Amino acid sequence: xxxxxxxxxxxxxxxxxxxxxxxxxxxxxxxxxxxxxxxxxxxxxxxxxxxxxxxxxxxxxxxxxxxxxxxxxxxxxxxxxxxxxxxxxxxxxxxxxxxxxxxxxxxxxxxxxxxxxxxxxxxxxxxxxxxxxxxxxxxxxxxxxxxxxxxxxxxxxxxxxxxxxxxxxxxxxxxxxxxxxxxxxxxxxxxxxxxxxxxxxxxxxxxxxxxxxxxxxxxxxxxxxxxxxxxxxxxxxxxxxxxxxxxxxxxxxxxxxxxxxxxxxxxxxxxxxxxxxxxxxxxxxxxxxxxxxxxxxxxxxxxxxxxxxxxxxxxxxxxxxxxxxxxxxxxxxxxxxxxxxxxxxxxxxxxxxxxxxxxxxxxxxxxxxxxxxxxxxxxxxxxxxxxxxxxxxxxxxxxxxxxxxxxxxxxxxxxxxxxxxxxxxxxxxxxxxxxxxxxxxxxxxxxxxxxxxxxxxxxxxxxxxxxxxxxxxxxxxxxxxxxxxxxxxxxxxxxxxxxxxxxxxxxxxxxxxxxxxxxxxxxxxxxxxxxxxxxxxxxxxxxxxxxxxxxxxxxxxxxxxxxxxxxxxxxxxxxxxxxxxxxxxxxxxxxxxxxxxxxxxxxxxxxxxxxxxxxxxxxxxxxxxxxxxxxxxxxxxxxxxxxxxxxxxxxxxxxxxxxxxxxxxxx
Length: 667
Fold this sequence. Notes:
667 residues; Jelly Rolls; mainly beta; disordered N terminus; globular
């Protein structure tokens, strides 16, 4: 008898005992048009029929290649030979699949270290589109067998091109980004174990709107010596060549794509036409222009094209304090595709992976454990002043340890690293043991923040105080992409209810950020919101427009929480950061949780912050700006003040609000 899988109306039901969807993942692995099945015994075939949707298309993938494709109601029989399979509805919502697992012996297991040479498949830089061949290599690596020590894909050094038309189409949620129905993935490293891709210094170039790299449902995947970029930058840079008669003429290099239509300027780097929302000003050497304000400047798009490379804008740049020779970065606020996503990926290693640009963040990791980044980073290309359109690296609801060493992050539109939990708002208390929780920000929905059996930290919405008693989820049910129903093992604690928040107490990472350089970026250098130990050591923070280090936390905006309880900032160089204000950037080290009622707190939010042995070269801005912190120690630091930029907060070295137990070096 067939087993029925209904998506998304009813629960995912267990299949044969040797190949099933684990009940605890009920609805949580569901994307907009995709659901994940575990393959627990690779001697079984998957048989059945696609949903009875006339005229609609459906696919079954191993996460890398299409294993079966057909129309609604058509039958299939396949042996997956992979760790997971993905049921995808191409052009409609998933409905009901009739599926059954049947025994089918196969003899394909291989052991030992296997090396797959790219040029023998073939997969080489001479190919017009390297995507299909490389994905076959990756699929072969995944098929070698679970007992292998490691499979290495060795590529010939060169430039490889990838296109959305031939990319693998998957559907999943990406935190802190615009949600897409389908993601065209150029390099899907999905369902893999013990796989290494060696690029040997190769450059991967991605064309159009697409997701370059996805590492998902994998363990111990490594990438070595690869540069990731797009064929055209997402944002444009124009050099001011003339300011005259209330207009400003800019010259754009050949790598940028744009058009002037109906007297307005549009960015077209991803194949769509987008109006810029603001401009940012940089010096030719990459430093941001110190405006003292938020960085993003209003700028009219009204213009006229005066040559193949020049556009005259009806804006007077001199009124913004700008001058000839400076660079304006034209940006908008779309975030369709990060350059790399880690999702349910454990023990990932990125060794000398360089990001040149992106259509969102460079790297975002969610529900992933133990991530190591050695070298690489975000680096400006030739004659460029910006790299990625948001954060360089971003970690949401991760666990284990995040190790980032000897990387360079420059020219980002946001932080070099941002580590936090995603907390949910309590929207309804159904009973003492059942709540409805909501993903509160539209760019942070859908992915599994909680699973059955995991611990819950309750957070008071107005004071951000963590309740001393943890809860535990007996049952988590995804109602839709914005809401979870959570059944608790014990009644909700007294004083916790609608308007408060919850975060996952089992998914906090420790962070080591060591020997890195962060320079010439908008917003903040680093941002940490995790109770596990954080170490920032031997780093250089040079010209970050906002704070070099921010300890944040909120339950009313982005809903990014996770108070800090052990932070060590040791032996770093802080060289003229905070040249302008941006969100929560009021000190070189800014401790700025968003607390609505700090005076009502019994316990301060961030605790145990040691700042020792650092060198500060700075104009007269606060070394520390802190709200709601306990036990801040600032000692044995070298500080040299100057008047290079305008002062802030009357030049005070420390600004403290609602803080306890501080030990601060005096000047």
